Amino acid sequence: QVLLAESGGGLVQPGGSLTLSCAASESIFSGYPMAWFRESQGRQRERVASITPSGMAEYVASATGRFTISRDNAKNTLTLQMNSLKVEDTGVYYCNRDPNPHYAMAAWGKGTLVTVSS
Fold it and tell me: Is residue 118 over pLDDT 80?
C-alpha cells in the first residue's frame, strides 16, 4: 500500500542540486493537483510548489527560478528538481494533494530530509 512515499533527500552543499520523488497511490494522485511542502525547524509546513493534472505549475517566491515541479500521470509520480540550493531550503519535504476546500488531503507520508550545508 503506497499512499505517499517521498525519496531523494540528502546532504548537499549550497549551490548544489537534488531531485525529489514522490510515489503516490492512484486514488490520491489521479486527477488531483499535487504539491510539494517543506517543514523547516521552527516553521510551519509551507507549500513550495504545486502542479495541476494538466501540468500548470506554481511556486513560492523563494523557489521560483530554482525549483521545477513535474508529474507523470501514467506512473502516479511527482518530482521536484531543486537547483541552486540555499541553506534556507533545508527541511523535510512532503508531497500531497494541493490544498482545496473541495477535497481532503491524503495522510502525510514520512517525508524526505534535505540538508543544505557547507
Answer: yes
